[in-house]
Amino acid sequence: MIVNNGLTVSFRPQAAAVFSSRVQGVADEGGGKPEPLQDLNGRVVGTPESRYGLSTRTLQLLKQYDVRSMSGRDLYALTEILGANDEMDGETAAVIRADIANKGWKGSGEVNTLEIFSKRRDDEMAGVKAGEVSLRFADYAIKGYERAQQTLEKLAALHDALQSEDDVQSATADGMSQATDLLNLERWARSAEKADANGQALLVDQETAESIGRAMRRAGMELPPPSSDLEDGAWARQALQAHRTWQFRHPGDKLGIDLKPADEADKKVFKEAAKPSTEAVGEQLPQQAPASPAKKAAEAMAGLQAQAQYGMSLSMLRLIKGADIASLSVEQVKQYSQLLRTGGVLSEDDAESLLPLTQRGMVDPMSYYKRDLSWLADMKAKGLTPQYATAGGMADLANVEGRVRNDQQGQGVLERLQALHQALQGDDRVKAAATDSLGQAGDQAAFERWAHVEQQGARNAEAAEPEFRSQKDVDGIFRILHRLGVELTPMQGDSSASQRLGQAWKDYQNWRSSHPGEGPAVARAPARGIDAYA
C-alpha cells in the first residue's frame, strides 16, 4: 500500500518496498501497539506534516507568516529555508531572491508579494504586446515570474488552511529570524564537522558567526560573542565544541523555534461586535417595495432569458451595464478587465491586449490605441523605425507588426465592451447596481472566491487555495457580510486577516441557517465571451 503525502511525487519502487516492509507488521515482538502508518517520507499518515508534505518547522512558519503581508527580508529568508528543505523549487526560489535583492526591497516593510510578482509578470508581457521585446526574448522572465507567483499563491493558501489546524502551533513574530539562525547553524555545523575530520581549518565569517551564536545561546549553550578577528579559528572551535556538548547532553533532540501558546494563537480580533455598514456595498439595487411571488418568478425568467441571449452571467451583465469603459480611469480599466477575465467574458489573450494601456498608466483609454496606431502609420509613411524610451536611452521596437496587431485587438476589445454597455442601457431585464458598479462587482467576486475556498475545506497542499489576494478583497468580503446583516463574533487581541475570515465564515454559516435561500448569488459560468459582440 503506497500512501502519498498530498504532493506530486515520483513513484520509486525501492522506496515503496522499504515503506511496505516497515508498516506491514501489526505489532512488535513484545505484543505492543502496531507502529503508526507512515508515508514515503517517513511521516505519520494523517498528520499535518504528511497531508501538506512539509516539515513541522515550515508549517509553524507558514501559520504565522502570510506572503500577502510580508517584508522582503522575511520572504528572502523563507525561500532559503524552503529551498534547504527541498520544499521549494530551487530555480523559483532564486527568481524570488534575485528580485528582492536587485529591486531593492529586502529592507522594505510588509508588502503584498502576490501583487509584486503579478505586476512583474504583467510588465514583461506588456513589453511584448507593445512590440518592445520579442516573446522569445522575454519568455524566460515571464515564465519565471509566473512560477514565482504560483508558488507564492500556494504559500498564501497554506497560511489560510493552517489557521484551522489545531495540531500546528504558530511561530512567534520573530520566528523567521530564529529559523534563519538555526539554518545557518545546521549548515555550518555540518561543514565544520567535515573540516575537523579532515584536519582542515574551521572557517566562519562574521555574519554567520553572529547568526549561529544567537541560535546556540537561545538553546542554552555556553558561548562568548564572536570576536572581530575570526581568522585564527579559535571562536569557531569553541562553537563546534559547544555544539557537540549540547548534542551529547540532549541525544535525539533537535533545536526549534519559539512557538505561540495555543490559547494566544486562538485569540480573537474584534474589540466589539461589527455593525452593518451604511455604505452602498455588495450587489445592491435601487430600493423597491417587496415583489410578489409572481413578479419574482417573472424577473427570474427574464434574467435567465438575458443570460441565454448574451451568454453571460447576470453579475457580468450588470457590471458591463453599470461600467462605461470610456469614463473609467486606467486603474479602473485594469480592475474591469481582470473581473471580465475571471468571469469568462474576456479571453486571456484579449485581457492581455490591454496590458500596454493598463501597465503604462496612460490617460483616456478609448483613444490610447487609436493615437498609437496613428503614430505607427505616420512613422511607416516617413520610412522611420518607431522607438521607445528605455533607461539607457531610445531603442528601436523589436516587433512593429506585433504592436500594430495588439493595438488593433485592444481597440476592438474596448469598442465591443462599450457597444455592449450601450446596448444594455435599453434592456430592463438587466438591473445595474445602484452605485459604484465596478467596486461592488469586485466585492462580489472576492466574496464568491472566499466562499468557494471555505466550502472546499482543503486539508492538503494540492487542494489548498488562497481565500483572498489582497486587503482590498478582505474589505470587500466584510462589506458584503455587513450588508447581509451577519452578526460577527466579538473578538479580542490581534489576529491576521485569515483568522478574521475563518471566524467570519462560521458566523456566516450560522446566519445562513436562519436565513435559508438568502445571500449573494453565485454567478453562472458564461457560454460565450465578448467576441460575440464584434
UniProtKB/TrEMBL annotation:
Positions of the UniProt region annotated as Disordered: 275-294, 512-534
Record field: compositional bias (Low complexity): 283-294
Record protein name field: Uncharacterized protein
Organism: Chromobacterium piscinae
Lineage: Bacteria, Pseudomonadati, Pseudomonadota, Betaproteobacteria, Neisseriales
